[in-house]
Amino acid sequence: MAGILSQQEIDSLLSGMTKQDEATETNPGADREVLPFDFQIPSRISKRQLQALNAVYVTFAEAFGSYLLSSLQARVSMSVTDVQQMFYSQYLASTAKPSCLYVFRMGESEAQGVLELSPSLVLAVIARMLGGTADPNLPPRSITKIEQNITRGIVLRALADMDRAWATIIDRKFVLERYETEGDFLQIAPASEVVLVVSFELSIDGQPYAMNICLPTFAFEDILAKLHVQHSAGVDSSHGHTESRVVVMKTLETTKIPLVCVLGDTTLTVKQLMNLEPGDVLLTDTTTASDLRIELGGTTRALGKPGISNGRAAVKLTQIMSDTINQEEGQHGTN
């Protein structure tokens, strides 16, 4: 049977509690905030890997935003708002109805991902492409077959920009497979599978729109370790410059540059120009033995001889104007 405390023992206990309260007041650090932790939150990808993935999709957002800027002839900005991991069932519950869901295959594997566009974004882009203006007050609706065909080209460009954004890490092509309007028809992963959801905010003339990319984590488990090595050890500026240089060089390699072969020059008066008829012969300052000028950006970069190759007009290079190139580079360097 428990004993009864005396009055002296009760006073001692109360005195000890008072001293503890005073110590807490004099040392605020002793009272630390306790944060709840939900063990159901998936954490298959580390924070460093999430940062690396965020960098990949920042590159994608810049490229795709620039494409929309030139295509829509409007003020367009695009940014990554969140990179998080969740269960696939949670992602399906968050998709709007109706929505514009484009399922794509990740490389040669059977793994699939989802590019989610809000219907309001699709309708705004279509209106801009057809020369109209977007009305943000229109209620969301399913897009028609014709609107799907118009949007398909934009989605293909988005996947191509995603290819280039991932190119510094892996060589993986994203191939468009089908279009869905509701998440219940996707089934790209089990409900309990952890997926990566990258959220974007796309602003067109100040009006914000939502865009998401959902990727199952099992699809790129083989590259997570590679992501960690490349980006966690490379936080110094020199590594950043190297990565940027690789991205820029890969983009430049596919850039088309007009190359012009000048057959000859001549001078005409306005009267002669007005009297030109089919069959007239124009005399140029180029002889049959002269080399033709090959111009790049209005500057002569090479010389060549005209001819025919496989039944088509062709020019055989006879001289590369390296001296001109070096001289111009030296002038730019001194400026």
Characterization of this structure:
- The chain folds into two domains: 47-253, 3-Layer(aba) Sandwich (Chemotaxis protein chec); 259-334, Surface presentation of antigens (SPOA) (Roll), CATH 2.30.330.10.
- The chain has helices at residues 7-26, 47-72, 88-94, 119-129, 145-166, 221-232, 237-253, 270-274, 322-334; strands spanning 76-87, 100-106, 112-117, 174-180, 194-204, 207-216, 259-262, 292-296, 299-309, 312-320.
- Strands 1-5-6-3-2-4 form a six-stranded antiparallel beta sheet. A four-stranded antiparallel beta sheet has the order 7-8-9-10.
- It is built from nine helices and ten strands.
- 40% of the residues lie in helices and 24% in strands.
- It is α+β, with helices and mostly antiparallel strands.
- Structural classification: alpha+beta
Percent of residues in helices:
25-40%
Which strand order do you get reading across the main beta sheet? 1-5-6-3-2-4
Please name the fourth-level CATH homologous superfamily of the largest domain: CheC-like
Based on Cα principal axes, name the global outline: elongated
Strand composition percent:
15-25%
Low-confidence stretches: 231-240, 331-335
Subunit arrangement of the protein: single chain
User: What is the strand tally?
Assistant: 10
Distance between the termini: 97 Å
Q: Please give the CATH class of the largest domain.
A: Alpha Beta
Using only C-alpha atoms, the radius of gyration works out to: 32 Å
Here the CATH topology of the largest domain equals Chemotaxis protein chec
